[in-house]
Amino acid sequence: MEKLEGRLGWLLLFIVGLLFPFVTGNEYHLTVMTTAYIYIIATMGLNLITGYTGQFNLAHAGFMAAGAYVVGILTVDHGWGFWSAFLAAGAFTVLLGLPLGWVSLRLKGHYFSIFTLCVGYIMYLVIEKWEGLTHGTVGIIGIPAPSPIGPVEFESPLSLYYLVFAFLCVGMWVMRRIVNSLLGRTFMAIRNGDELAEALGINLARNKLLSFLISVLYAGWAGALYAGFVRFLGPDLAGAHHTFDMTMFMLIGGLGTLLGPLVGGIIVPWITQYMQFLQEYRFVVFGPILILLVIFVPYGIVGSYLARKARRASQAAVAAQPGASDKTQEASNA
Questions:
Q1: Cβ proximity of 121 and 239 under 8 Å
Q2: What is the mean pLDDT of residues 306-311?
Q3: Residues 6+ apart with CB under 8 A from 309
Q4: CA–CA gap between residue 297 and residue 102 (Å, rounded)
Q5: Quick one: which of 259, 246, 241, 243 has its CA closest to 300?
Q6: What is the pTM of this model?
Q7: Exposed, middle or buried: residue 40 (CB in 10 Å: 0-12, 13-18, 19+)?
Q8: What are phi and psi of 78, to 5 degrees?
Q9: Residue 43: exposed, middle, or buried by beta-carbon count in 10 A (0-12, 13-18, 19+)?
């Protein structure tokens, strides 16, 4: 973890991502990693509203499905180009999130989570039942690949991998700028306590809504990339289990950390893939592993490392104070 901190760590991760296709040489592995990247982008959005702002949005998969269906409907039924539909997907998810966020964020704690769970289920039902618009349970088939950018085409798994990887890098950079800014500290102040944040002059409603809209924008664009990569959509994409999968990525990687969604979003899919030989029993094995991680690594992999680092820094600061050794000796004698 120490090697992943700072600019050198980000550069190392970038190089690893660039070289991954040459290391694996396997199109199936490229497909798994590209799908993982897409879900990491969506998880970064969920991490902002949950890990940094303290509001657990259980409708996140619904917003991801909304972005995907905007791309599918506009490209297949109305002949739009992919990139025009991609921009429309982001705009639609933000516009959809505006009234839903304005209403739901008036609730606190588990009331907010229950409300968003209901919203997510309603979004799933709309996608499943509105056959005239979403094609219902049949789904949308034949979604075109992303349009070429200059001479670069996105028909092969390799080119799609690098396209999604580029969006992941940009999304990670933007998220890093947000959480390290005054705005990010405002979100964290709200997470640590509404009353205290309000006493400091923070506008709770406005900042919660802003965090929510950025979160659903990440989800919508992740869904748009998913549509262009998979080229088939079904109502299952809006299921709550996808939100719980993204929550698992955050918990294993580290809730409220920049690297958490990336670490969890890569580890979990690959563990799942290597448990395919167990078929339906792989979840019986994976469940206890997750429980052990939650018990012994409650802050996730990245969060636990940062907590240990903070404790060591605090102990070093106390030891460096004048007379600290004498006080420590007196305490031991007592």
A1: no
A2: 76
A3: none
A4: 35
A5: 259
A6: 0.89
A7: buried
A8: -125, 0
A9: buried
Helix (H, G, I), strand (E, B) or coil at 149: strand
Instruction: Give kind and range of the element (H or E) at residue 232.
Output: strand 232-233
Question: Collapsing DSSP states into helix, strand and coil, what is residue 162?
Answer: helix
Distance CA 134, CA 234 (A): 9
Proportion of the chain above pLDDT 70, given as a percent:
91
Phi and psi of 54, rounded to 5°?
Answer: 85, 25
Among 46, 44, 66, 43, CA closest to 56 = 46
Query: Residue 204 — left, alpha, or beta (φ > 0 → left; ψ -120 to 50 → alpha)?
Result: alpha
What is the rounded CA–CA span in Å between residue 225 and residue 218? 11
| Helix 240-253, helix 109-129: angle, nearest 10 | 140
CA 44 to chain centre: 3
Return the residue matching tokens 């460096």.
320
152 DSSP assignment? B
Report how far residue 114's alpha carbon sits from residue 129's, in angstroms, rounded to the nearest whole number. 23
What is the tens place of the pLDDT at every residue in 74-96? 999 998 999 999 999 999 999 99
Integer angstrom CA distances of residue 147 from 57, 68, 138, 154: 32, 16, 25, 7
- Whose tokens are 């959809």? That residue is 96
In contact, 90 and 217? CB cutoff 8 Å: yes
Separation of alpha carbons 85 and 72, rounded Å: 8
C-alpha span between 212 and 88 (Å, rounded): 18
- Per residue in 57-79, pLDDT tens? 999 999 999 999 999 999 999 98
The 10s digit of each residue's pLDDT in 162-185 is 999 999 999 999 999 999 999 999
Distances in Å between the alpha carbon of 249 and those of 198, 246, 255, 256, 266? Answer: 31, 5, 9, 12, 8
Among the listed residues 15, 19, 35, 78, the one whose alpha carbon sits nearest the alpha carbon of residue 270: 35
